[in-house]
């Protein structure tokens, strides 16, 4: 039986993006995501992270999409080589 766990992701963008930006995370093979279109809990890591998203959506058997990364509010953006870290919950090892 596979155990349900969380996985920490460190994301470093290749280009600038802002409030309405989306992140797509391709998970490694061997992990089992919830069914298509299911929501998964996202937990930003670090006190000063600009990330406000708390939910991602499974869009394929190995990809999770996180929309509105910085949430509503004042303009926020990430520059190349900035990084954010977050945990994705509810994945089976």
What does this structure look like?
The protein has one domain. It has no helices and eight strands. It has strands at 4-11, 17-18, 23-26, 39-45, 55-58, 63-66, 77-78, 84-92. A six-stranded antiparallel sheet has the order 1-8-4-5-6-3, with no helix packed on it. A hairpin with a 4-residue loop joins strand 5 and strand 6 (63-66).
Biggest sheet descriptor:
6 strands, antiparallel
Number of domains: 1
Based on CA atoms alone, the radius of gyration comes out at: 13 Å
How many DSSP helices?
0
Strand order of the largest sheet: 1-8-4-5-6-3
Q: What general outline do the C-alpha atoms trace?
A: elongated
C-alpha termini separation: 9 Å
User: Total strand count, please?
Assistant: 8
Helix content: under 10%
SSE sequence, one letter per element: EEEEEEEE
% residues in beta strands: 35-45%
Detail the poorly predicted runs: none
Structural class determined from secondary elements: mainly beta
Can you give the mean pLDDT? 88
Briefly, what is this?
With 93 residues, the chain is an all-beta fold.
Topology:
Blueprint: E1 4-11, E2 17-18, E3 23-26, E4 39-45, E5 55-58, E6 63-66, E7 77-78, E8 84-92
Antiparallel strand pairs: 1-8, 2-7, 3-6, 4-5, 4-8, 5-6
Which descriptors would you attach to this protein?
single chain, mainly beta, two-stranded antiparallel ribbon, 8 strands
């Amino acid at each position: 039986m596979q155990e349900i766990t969380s996985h920490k992701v460190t994301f470093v963008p290749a280009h600038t993006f802002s409030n309405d930006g989306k992140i797509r995370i391709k998970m490694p093979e061997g992990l089992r995501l919830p069914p298509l279109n299911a929501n998964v809990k996202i937990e930003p890591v670090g006190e000063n992270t600009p990330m406000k998203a708390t939910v991602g959506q499974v869009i394929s058997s190995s990809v999770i999409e996180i929309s509105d990364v910085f949430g509503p509010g004042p303009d926020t953006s990430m520059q190349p080589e900035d990084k954010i870290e977050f945990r994705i919950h509810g994945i089976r090892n």
